[in-house]
């Protein structure tokens, strides 16, 4: 016998959870199906745990730099950096506690709203029937008027000839989830991929004491950034002691085979344009080379839901799929993969379907923050994008080193730069980047100006409290070219 629901949501991520609550509160009979744990990637394996661990890395960094501020952990006559010890079990436990708290809070709110929370894996039987294999092995068949797919993505395993994870000691080959469960500091961590995940973990484990090498296929780190920003980020990581190989990819990853558990993996690296291979020997390898959508388990064909070649669900500007009863939100539909985008997708669906609105994803302003230290905050267009998008318009760029910011000097955190792209005629800000201390918060100030259509001259002329980081928005415009 099948149960009928007004709405079924697949995946309790950052879009799926609030959507299920909104439907239940609007008196729709609603089921939320989750195959793993409530909260999705962000709470369990993404934003929450990583930013919690990164906070430990920052404490390690500042403690080591203590003598520069006159603060010593031991003998003051020793000019060497403060000696620190890292207990990964404590770092990990702090992360686990915060994740547990966030997850249980989320689960409580789902149940209190009257959502039927079903732990199991969902797939389609036909256009209107969802099959669930529950965690305890039961089969359920649910019919429904509407389905919302928010099943997210998972780490991709790069294609490397002959690579077989089973050949390695358990825990030597890591992804962004398993690396968070390490109980020891790696004796050499090799990171494959110089994107968000590679940079955040690479710098974190360097700060926790591991030698780290990042292998990045492209000519720069963070391929979507302007080259000058990526170059500045490279400088930051190098200064922190992270080794970065650009234009490089692993050509073979195999067991090191010399019986030393501290060196379990041998990584052959090829650099494009250069013949030959070099070999890295590592205790651990982290794959941070992108993510793939969780769609193959869903049997989307049975419901006539179309996907891209990479498996992302194709959705229109109102998030509707090729099946008019089915919508897709969050990472699973491709495009910017951030928690705040998944949440904005929820907002759009709530407005359109429960409040008779007519929103589209249209021209949304996408901010993001890479939580390296200093942070890289960005909103709107990059310079290279703005020049491509507006070939006929006069654009100006202001780029100012963080060493011009009084507060950054006072706190001795002057690494990085801020950069704005403006339209000369309208004086509107088209894009802003801050690689700098609290770069995400500074970026958010500029985002607010962009939302309000505030011209750059208003930021230049505003009275900002001294000596705040915001005050730098007075001076930046002196660098406009
Ligand atoms: C290491 C890391 C750090 C990150 N840091 C940040 C950050 O700082 N800021 C930021 O904005 N973003 C960050 N992200 C990205 C962010 O986590 C994702 O963009 C966000 O979680 C996507 O949310 P979602 O709602 O699309 O899906 P998810 O949160 O991925 O949730 C999908 C859910 O669906 C479930 N599911 C999958 N298939 C099925 C099925 N067949 N049946 C039932 N359930 C299913 C999964 O178990 C999962 O719980 C990070 C990601 C990673 C990996
Ligand atoms: N702070 C944040 O907001 C945050 C943090 C982490 C992750 N995320 C989200 O998760 C997504 C996935 O992160 P990610 O870092 O895995 O992906 P990514 O796409 O950002 O970066 C992957 C990098 O790996 C490189 N690469 C791919 N294959 C390679 C290979 N074989 N050898 C060497 N390099 C290779 C690519 O050139 C790219 O630079 C991000 O795009 C982002 O949307 C966000």
Automatic annotation (TrEMBL):
Gene3D superfamilies: 3.30.390.30, FAD/NAD(P)-binding domain (3.50.50.60). Residues 366-474 form the Pyridine nucleotide-disulphide oxidoreductase dimerisation domain. Pfam families: Pyr_redox_2, Pyr_redox_dim. The keyword Protease does not apply. SUPFAM superfamilies: FAD/NAD(P)-binding domain, FAD/NAD-linked reductases, dimerisation (C-terminal) domain. Keywords: FAD, Flavoprotein. It comes from the Eukaryota. Residues 5-342 form the FAD/NAD(P)-binding domain. The keyword Flavoprotein applies. Signal peptide: none annotated. Belongs to the class-I pyridine nucleotide-disulfide oxidoreductase family. This is Pyridine nucleotide-disulfide oxidoreductase RclA.
């Amino acid at each position: 016998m099948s149960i009928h629901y007004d709405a079924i949501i697949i995946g309790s991520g950052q879009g799926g959870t609030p959507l299920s609550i909104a439907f239940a509160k609007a008196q729709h009979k609603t089921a939320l199906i989750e195959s793993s744990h409530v909260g999705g990637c962000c709470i369990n394996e993404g934003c929450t745990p990583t930013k919690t661990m990164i906070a430990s890395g920052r404490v390690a960094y500042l403690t080591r730099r203590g003598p520069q501020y006159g603060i010593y952990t031991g003998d003051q006559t020793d000019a060497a950096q403060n000696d620190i010890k890292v207990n990964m079990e404590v770092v990990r436990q702090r992360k686990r506690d915060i994740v547990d708290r966030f997850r249980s809070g989320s689960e409580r709110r789902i149940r209190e709203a009257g959502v039927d929370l079903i732990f199991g894996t969902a797939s389609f039987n036909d256009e209107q029937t969802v099959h669930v294999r529950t965690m305890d092995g039961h089969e359920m068949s649910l019919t429904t008027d509407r389905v919302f797919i928010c099943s997210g993505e998972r780490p991709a395993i790069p294609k490397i000839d002959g690579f077989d994870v089973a050949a390695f000691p358990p825990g030597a080959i890591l992804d962004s989830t398993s690396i968070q469960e390490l109980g020891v500091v790696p004796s050499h961590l090799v990171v494959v991929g110089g994107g968000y995940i590679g940079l955040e973990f690479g710098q974190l484990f360097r700060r926790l004491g591991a030698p780290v090498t990042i292998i990045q296929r492209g000519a720069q780190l963070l391929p979507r950034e302007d080259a000058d920003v990526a170059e500045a980020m490279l400088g930051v990581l190098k200064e922190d002691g992270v080794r970065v190989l650009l234009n490089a990819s692993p050509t073979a990853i195999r067991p090191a085979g010399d019986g030393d558990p501290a060196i379990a993996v041998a990584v052959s690296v090829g650099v494009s344009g250069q013949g030959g291979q070099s070999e890295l020997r590592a205790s651990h390898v982290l794959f941070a080379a992108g993510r793939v959508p969780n769609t193959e388990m869903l049997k989307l064909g049975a419901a006539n839901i179309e996907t891209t070649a990479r498996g992302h669900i194709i959705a229109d500007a109102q998030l509707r799929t090729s099946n008019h009863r089915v919508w897709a939100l969050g990472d699973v539909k491709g495009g910017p993969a951030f928690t705040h985008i998944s949440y904005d997708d929820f907002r759009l669906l709530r407005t359109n379907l429960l409040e008779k609105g007519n929103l589209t994803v249209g021209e949304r302003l996408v901010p993001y923050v890479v939580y390296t230290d200093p942070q890289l905050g960005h909103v709107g267009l990059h310079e290279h994008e703005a020049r491509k998008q507006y070939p006929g318009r006069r654009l100006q760029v202001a780029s100012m080193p963080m060493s011009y910011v009084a507060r950054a000097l006072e706190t001795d955190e002057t690494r990085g730069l801020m950069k704005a792209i403006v339209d000369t005629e309208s004086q509107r800000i088209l894009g802003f980047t801050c690689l700098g201390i609290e770069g995400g918060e500074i970026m958010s100030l500029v985002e607010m100006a962009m939302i309000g259509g505030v011209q750059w001259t208003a930021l230049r002329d505003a009275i900002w409290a001294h000596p705040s980081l915001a005050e730098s928005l007075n001076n930046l415009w002196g660098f406009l070219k």
